[in-house]
Design goal:
- The complex is a heterodimer of chains A (about 290) and B (about 280).
- Chain A contains 14 helices and no strands.
- Chain A is mainly alpha-helical.
- Chain A is globular and about 75 Å long.
- With about 280 residues, chain B is mostly helical.
- Helices cover about 75% and strands about 0% of the residues of chain B.
- Chain B is built from 13 helices and no strands.
- Chain B has helices at about 1-35, 40, 55-65, 65-100, 105-115, 125-130, 140-165, 165-175, 180-190, 195-210, 210-215, 225-235, 240-275.
- In chain B, helix 4 (about 65-100) crosses helix 10 (about 195-210), helix 7 packs antiparallel against helix 10 and helix 12 crosses helix 13 (about 240-275).
- Chain B is globular.
- Chain B starts with a helix and ends with a helix.
- Classes of the chains: A mainly alpha (about 290), B mainly alpha (about 280).
- Chains A and B meet through helix 1, helix 3, helix 4, helix 5 and helix 6 of A and helix 1, helix 4, helix 5, helix 6 and helix 7 of B.
Chain lengths: ~290, ~280
């Protein structure tokens, strides 16, 4: 195909300029800030060079938040893969009410995150939550538990809540991949005597590669970025157990008023995410065949 | 064969039950709870079927709070963000889809990776930047940010929809002497309309649910959006649950209504068109 350099750039440039301005200018500002020692917004600080960066790596808070972010991504990836595949494979079957379910399963994704927080704060409440009373009724619990009171319970609860929000959306994208698989392959495999587990492993899964690539990349980055669900439920606690890097940045900037430190954190985090993205794209990008 | 079908049936029923319990029951729960009396909401013995019915929470939030101000702000910000996002991403997606140009793969992947930068990483510097150029406390501050969040995925989805339009239709139009502008406005956009509608919903949802930037970039009460207003109640020490629940239901209502009308395009767009 012949190249349309000028026309092509004309079409993409409005968006490219918009996005680059809103990303690159702030990144530059953050980089500049990270070399100074500014505390409260609006004040000026003295030049400290790479001091902020050196200090950062020695801070236990940074190490702790990085580990939390890492567990957060892994935990969400596992839960969301499970939920999303369950939903997608179920909806892919024929059953009465399938259309309604396919349309409305995404409800948890279209409501504001604040509403997600309200729903689960009420359902998981230790004094009057329905989950507690159901668990007690069926004998799994002896007395009401606080789902956000211990570090582990809080972390797991948050992972589940966030997965609850995102899995239906991911399920629909997986469904788009499932729909693009040629039906004849299933029929042919049936003739050869394959059962539905074998069909999943050898037909469904390999054919979802390009969909899973996008989900792997975007999903990881989106999980990493989650802020509001954690902040509005636990504020990063108890004892920093749910403080991921986004929460640490927010806290540093807007509750501790250490703007330069927050900027340094932002730069380091951007760098880590960029590195991850490049490695992921280079190693996993599916070959284009169109 | 019969045995395998039985296993399938059990699997299907179990997962359907699981899905309904996990993904639909919570909605039933908050909606019914929002009509319960305050005593019943916080009672230790929970009642699946409500025992009381009251409209007092809705009365309070509709006639005795800033709900309508927040609603207006959310609507203005979300609609403007949606329209700007659609214009920018339709143009970019068409360029990426049809016109092979130097650097197109780079732009494509960069757009996907752009997901890495939004969120809290940009919060501090954007706050400072907007403070410098006097954009804090304005709708436009939120619109700028929402467009940034919505467009990368919007372009990705739109590209997939454009791919579904047969090349021959476009080529026939060119042979008849149509210009690029005519082809886009008379052929591409109408044929991709369901796709564009679903991308529009996506952009609207992204803006409607955004909390973080709205909470930092806006400080005036008269400009706050619904999520920020609601979060203010969540943060209170003594939560007025009835008030909060009715607020949560009302804040979800506009997107749900929108979804009732064009939701099927969104879902079929996602499941049939996107990411192929």
């Amino acid at each position: 195909m012949k190249k349309n350099n000028i026309e092509g750039w004309l079409f993409v440039s409005p968006l490219v300029i918009w996005i680059s301005l809103i990303i690159l200018v702030p990144i530059y500002i953050a980089f500049e800030l990270s070399l100074f020692n500014v505390k409260i917004i609006g004040t000026s600080g003295k030049f400290v060079g790479i001091d902020n960066y050196i200090k950062l790596f020695g801070k236990s808070k940074f190490v702790n938040a990085s580990l939390n972010s890492f567990y957060w991504i892994i935990g969400n990836a596992i839960c969301q893969t499970f939920f999303a595949f369950t939903i997608a494979l179920t909806i892919n079957y024929k059953f009465p009410g399938k259309k309604i379910m396919a349309n409305w399963i995404i409800l948890s994704f279209i409501i504001p995150t604040v509403v997600v927080v309200v729903i689960w704060k009420l359902m998981l409440s230790s004094s009057s939550g329905v989950i507690n009373s159901v668990l007690i009724d069926i004998g799994l619990l002896n007395e009401a538990t606080g789902f956000f009171s211990s570090p582990n319970k809080a972390f797991i609860s948050l992972v589940l809540i966030n997965s609850w929000r995102w899995s239906p959306f991911l399920a629909l994208i997986i469904l788009s991949g499932l729909n693009s698989i040629n039906r004849e392959m299933y029929d042919a495999s049936k003739v050869d005597g394959a059962n539905f587990i074998q069909q999943f492993l050898f037909i469904t899964f390999p054919n979802l590669k390009s969909v899973l690539f996008v989900l792997g990349l975007v999903g990881t980055l989106l999980s990493f970025n989650i802020f509001d669900i954690i902040w509005l439920i636990t504020k990063g606690g108890p004892s920093s157990a749910t403080t991921t890097l986004p929460l640490l940045i927010y806290e540093t900037a807007f509750t501790k008023f250490r703007i330069s430190q927050a900027a340094t954190l932002s730069i380091v985090t951007s760098f880590l995410l960029l590195l991850f993205s490049i490695i992921f794209i280079k190693s996993m990008a599916p070959k284009e065949n169109d | 064969m019969i045995k395998e079908n039985n296993i399938k049936f059990i699997f299907l029923s179990l997962s359907l039950l699981l899905i309904i319990l996990i993904f639909f029951f919570p909605f039933f729960w908050i909606i019914t709870s929002s009509f319960k009396s305050p005593e019943e909401i916080i009672a230790t013995s929970t009642t699946i079927i409500p025992r009381s019915f009251t409209l007092e929470h809705y009365n309070k939030i509709l006639f005795n709070s800033d709900f309508f101000i927040y609603l207006k702000n959310s609507l203005i910000v979300s609609f403007s963000s949606m329209i700007i996002s659609i214009i920018l991403s339709v143009s970019a997606a068409y360029g990426l889809h049809k016109l092979k140009f130097y650097g197109n793969k780079f732009v494509e992947y960069s757009l996907l990776v752009t997901y890495a930068f939004p969120g809290v990483i940009l919060l501090v510097p954007i706050y400072l930047l907007f403070a410098k150029v006097n954009l804090l406390n304005s709708y436009f501050a939120l619109i700028i940010v929402n467009v940034l969040f919505a467009t990368p995925f919007a372009v990705w989805m739109l590209k997939a929809f454009f791919k579904l339009i047969p090349n021959e239709i476009e080529e026939a139009a060119y042979i008849d002497g149509a210009s690029r502008y005519v082809v886009i406005s008379r052929i591409i956009i109408p044929l991709a309309a369901p796709g564009i509608a679903s991308v529009a919903i996506f952009c609207f949802i992204i803006s409607w649910t955004e909390y973080l930037f709205a909470s930092i970039l806006i400080s005036g009460d008269d400009l706050k959006t619904l999520p920020v207003g609601l979060a203010g109640i969540v943060g209170q020490y003594q939560i007025d649950w009835g008030f909060l629940l009715s607020g949560a239901v009302l804040a979800s209502l506009p997107v749900i209504l929108l979804f009732v009308f064009i939701g099927k395009y969104f879902v079929s767009g996602l499941t049939e068109g996107a990411v192929k």
